[in-house]
Specification:
Keywords: Hydrolase. This protein is an alpha/beta fold and 333 residues long. It has 14 helices and 11 strands. It has 2 domains: 202 residues, 3-Layer(aba) Sandwich (Rossmann fold), CATH 3.40.50.300; 104 residues, Helicase, Ruva Protein, domain 3. 43% of the residues lie in helices and 15% in strands. It has a 5-stranded parallel sheet. Strands 3-4 form a two-stranded antiparallel sheet. A two-stranded antiparallel sheet has the order 6-7.
Length: 333
């Protein structure tokens, strides 16, 4: 039986969001994307200037779901052992013991990920993909559920290491976080300078795992899967889909992980919106977030002053989403 739209699960997600919003002001779109990533078991890459409540959002969410939260500040002198842990020699017993690193958490915040060298990034890559780490030939599983949220600072590029394409591709979405409105900033100042707000734990990590399992049961129509395939295919070969002159601006298009991310994301967003079936708008809302970090622009594209979002806009304008299903066609698989 499909339980993805039971009142209990909808109510639980509402309670989680309500508690987080007691602390975090605005940033609704960003918070929605964090919830989508959590339900779809994907990782999130976040770009925004400092001070926009990125860390606060994830920490508050961890408190609300009674999860373990760890934050790692990435720096150029970081080594993989600082991240995953290491073997320690005990002189008294003459044995080696394993000291596990901060990646053993439910919500891991990798702050300024592009400041760490390639060795550290590859250590994070294994844990993101395999959900386990290897220390001295021994594998250790990270807790479940497990979500990596990495932040990038767009204003300082000095002393940063560009993320390898293979690692960037492992992030389900790249979200751009913008400044709050004047009204929101007024409320932020009131909240921060006023009495401290204590959030209530309204869920457990087991309940979160149950929500993730329910998310897999949300129905996605084959026409929507076909739409996702077309969108991703158009980033690799725009001419094939009748989009002339776009191929010269793109060196590499998106991988099949993007197609999977679109389908999984549409499921999670539909569930957040209280439905047991996905609609075309659930997918179209997420297309820029899922694709923007996966397109590698050519020198020609960069010289024209284009960015990934502008190209995605042109692709979405050329490929029409499937028609919204009629009421009698809304069925659950």
């Amino acid at each position: 039986m499909d339980t993805s739209n039971t009142p209990d699960s909808a109510q639980l997600m509402e309670q989680i969001l309500y508690e987080v919003k007691r602390v975090v002001v605005g940033q609704d779109r960003f918070l929605e994307r964090v919830m989508v990533a959590m339900l779809a078991q994907g990782h999130l890459l976040v770009e925004g200037v400092p001070g926009l409540a990125k860390t606060l959002t994830v920490k508050t969410l961890a408190d609300v779901v009674r999860g373990r939260f760890k934050r790692i500040q990435f720096t150029p002198d970081l080594v993989p052992a600082d991240l995953i842990g290491t073997r320690i020699y005990n002189q008294k017993t003459g044995d080696f013991s394993t000291s596990l690193g901060p990646v053993f958490a439910n919500l891991l915040l990798a702050d300024e990920i592009n400041r760490a060298p390639a060795k550290v990034q590859s250590a994070l890559l294994e844990v993101m993909q395999e959900r386990q780490v290897t220390i001295a030939g021994e594998s250790h599983k990270v807790p479940s559920p497990f979500l990596v949220m990495a932040t990038q600072n767009p204003i300082e590029t000095e002393g940063t290491y560009p993320l390898p394409e293979a690692q960037v591709d492992r992030f389900m979405m790249k979200v751009l976080v913008d400044y709050p409105t004047d009204e929101e900033e007024y409320v932020i100042v009131e909240r921060v300078t006023g009495p401290a707000v204590t959030v209530q734990s309204v869920a457990t990590t087991d309940q979160l795992a149950a929500l993730q399992a329910q998310c897999r049961n949300v129905y996605v129509d084959p026409s929507m899967v076909q739409y996702a395939v077309k969108l991703v295919s158009a980033t690799r070969n725009p001419e094939k889909h009748g989009i002339k002159g776009l191929g010269a601006f793109i060196t590499y298009g998106a991988s099949p992980r993007a197609t999977i991310g679109l389908v999984e994301g549409a499921r999670a967003l539909a569930m957040l919106r209280g439905r047991s079936y996905a609609l075309p708008e659930d997918m179209t809302d997420l297309v820029p977030d899922v694709l923007r970090h996966r397109l590698v622009l050519s020198y020609e594209g960069l010289a024209e002053g284009l960015d990934a979002d502008a190209l995605i806009e042109r692709i979405m304008a050329a490929i029409t989403p499937p028609a919204k299903p009629l009421e009698h066609e809304k069925r659950v698989a």
